[in-house]
Design a protein that fits this description.
FAD/NAD(P)-binding domain, 5-stranded parallel beta sheet, 4 domains, alpha/beta
Length: 568
């Protein structure tokens, strides 16, 4: 059997390696249009920033090592340019010309290509991308080594604030460059909820990186010594380096005339990675996936799912369909920004609303370990769950412990646990590592209270309506209240709420009562008192003032300024 694999990174190489481990006799040929295979694509920004110091550390394997270890025929600088499924041949171009390559099984893992938006001037030699080892080598050289009389680059503009854009901006910042990020959308890292993304923006600014959101580049003007990036708001930024990170698309153009089923350029596959063509499988960034939560169809550009898909495709090829099916992805991802970690799994608010899914949201601000133990750091969590208790998505931003918690949520989603099942997770506890009620357990407890009607939530985005229709009770201390409070809110610390029931009843005068504190726990205690004392319409602000302040900064609320001082 001859197995031909197009694409030597992630899905493609995983498929080739697994096929060899299952079948020693198969002829396995891997083609890649680049100079390297099996390289650490996710490590490229860290090489640019010199955290990974040596180029060879990016090369997980080489053609020679793969030949020696797995007897794979690796052919770099070989580009697939056509496919004849009836003849079972792949048309290939290399430095010597073009030829047809026969296959018994074909695995398409061509990856993604950079999308070039219609911005005049992108043909400048100062415009770079970060997709390959060669890209990383060039960027680091430009940032660190003298280029003639001008010296190394001093100013960089990154177009796009997705994962690669943010990581590249931080890498260039580490090299001492003056860096600006330009993002068309409302905030950096678009999958993040706005109240979490604003925390990332604050960290980027603290690092010295300028963040220009709600902005786009409309032209890149070429200059002799530098380029000028012209922005949609009329401002201009001088740049020695411009990094394009505005998005990618499946690299499938060459297969459009082959009969291969494509949707918006992405390859349609079944749950075994099989395409509509006989003896042709596909995996990785170029494949159409169905989201496990929303069922929306999209390409997923993540290394983990790609590697796992390659393995399972090989199982299907070698075992004749006896391997495990491919699960729908839930989109778990993580990124480091300065001292912060941001991670998410499942769907966000926008995706859930677009899919027409009803859901609850909770905002939590627990510590990553026991507060009485030195070094306790806050984790900011946003969790979505359905009216039926199904976990729909979770996100976190913080200095420590975010990865552990988001991975637990991802595991719970994959295992079809209900959010109330999180209460019973038997997690390890010691003061340096966690809390007796871990943040994940706590999320389950809060969700149970919501589902059982023990508590009700109001949200930062409802602030305008709440200010018009409700009595707002700030349950923090007078000192906290004086540092900034909602206009019109009265201050009754949660420890004094029982002594002020008549006052609350009089001031409410039949209106709903909306309570809050710094994070939500003290006001929950006040809510419980009020409910049991006959107040029927009481709700607690999700995430408290910590979430509200972030939401105000993120533009999620009406244009409201908090009032400082002791007066309402």
């Amino acid at each position: 059997m001859r197995i031909v694999v197009v694409g030597g990174v992630a899905a493609g190489m995983s498929a080739a390696a697994r096929a060899r481990r299952l079948d020693e006799e198969a002829e396995i040929i891997v083609l890649d249009r680049g100079d390297h295979v099996s390289f650490a694509n996710c490590g490229l920004p860290y090489y640019v920033g010199s955290e990974i110091k040596e180029e060879n550390k990016l090369l997980v394997q080489t053609p020679t090592s793969l030949k020696n270890a797995l007897n794979l025929d690796i052919r770099v600088r070989h580009e697939a340019i056509g496919l004849d499924p009836k003849a079972k041949t792949l048309k290939v171009r290399n430095e010597d010309g073009e030829f047809d390559l026969e296959y018994d099984a074909l695995v398409l893992a061509p990856g993604a290509k950079v999308v070039y938006p219609p911005i005049p001037g992108l043909d400048s030699p100062r415009v770079s991308t970060l997709r390959t080892v060669e890209d990383a080598l060039t960027l680091r050289e430009e940032a660190t080594e003298a280029k003639g009389a001008s010296g190394p680059a001093k100013r960089a503009v990154v177009l796009g604030a997705g994962f690669i854009g943010v990581e590249t901006a931080e890498a260039l910042n580490r090299q001492g460059l003056d860096v600006s990020i330009v993002e068309l959308g409302p905030h950096v890292l678009p999958p993040l909820e706005p109240e979490l993304a604003v925390l990332v923006k604050r960290e980027l600014i603290a690092l010295g990186i300028k963040v220009l959101d709600h902005t786009s580049a409309v032209e890149i003007q070429h200059g002799e010594d530098f380029d000028t990036v012209v922005l949609s708001d009329g401002n201009k930024i001088e740049a020695d380096i411009v990094v394009l990170s505005t998005g990618v698309a499946p690299a499938t153009d060459v297969f459009e005339d082959s009969g291969l089923e494509l949707v918006k350029g992405a390859i349609v596959v079944d749950d075994r990675g099989r395409t509509n063509l006989d003896s042709v499988w596909a995996g990785g960034d170029a494949v159409l996936s169905k989201d496990a939560i929303t069922l929306a169809e999209r390409a997923v550009q993540l290394a983990g799912p790609a590697n796992r898909a390659g393995r399972q495709i090989a199982d299907d090829i070698i075992t004749g369909g006896k391997g495990r099916p491919l699960p729908n992805p839930i989109g778990t991802a993580i990124i480091r920004i300065g001292d912060l970690t941001a991670a998410f799994t499942g769907a966000n608010r926008r995706e859930l609303k677009e899919a027409g899914i009803d859901f609850h949201t909770i905002n939590l601000h627990p510590n990553q370990h026991a507060g009485y133990f030195p070094g306790a750091k806050m984790i900011n969590l946003v969790i979505h769950f359905g009216k039926d208790g199904r976990i729909l998505g979770a996100q976190g931003v913080g200095e420590e412990g975010v990865d552990k918690r988001v991975d637990l949520f991802a595991t719970a989603i994959r295992a079809d646990l209900l959010i109330t099942d999180l209460i019973d997770l038997d997690l390890s506890y010691s003061p340096p590592y966690g809390m007796a009620k871990d943040p994940v357990n706590l999320a389950g407890m809060v969700a149970e209270n919501i589902l059982d009607g023990v508590t009700a939530m109001w949200y930062s985005e409802d602030l305008g309506e709440v200010m018009e229709t409700s009595l707002i009770v700030d349950c923090r201390t007078p000192e906290e209240y004086a540092t900034g409070h909602i206009p019109g809110a009265i201050n009754i610390p949660h420890t004094q709420i029982r002594a002020h029931l008549d006052e609350v009843r009089e001031l409410a005068d039949g209106r709903p009562v909306r309570v809050h504190c710094a994070s939500g726990f003290r006001s929950y205690l006040a809510e419980r008192v009020l409910r049991q004392e006959g107040f029927s319409d009481v709700a607690n602000l999700a995430g408290g003032m910590l979430t509200l302040k972030a939401a105000i900064d993120a533009g999620m609320t009406p244009d409201v300024e908090l009032v400082c001082g002791s007066g309402a």
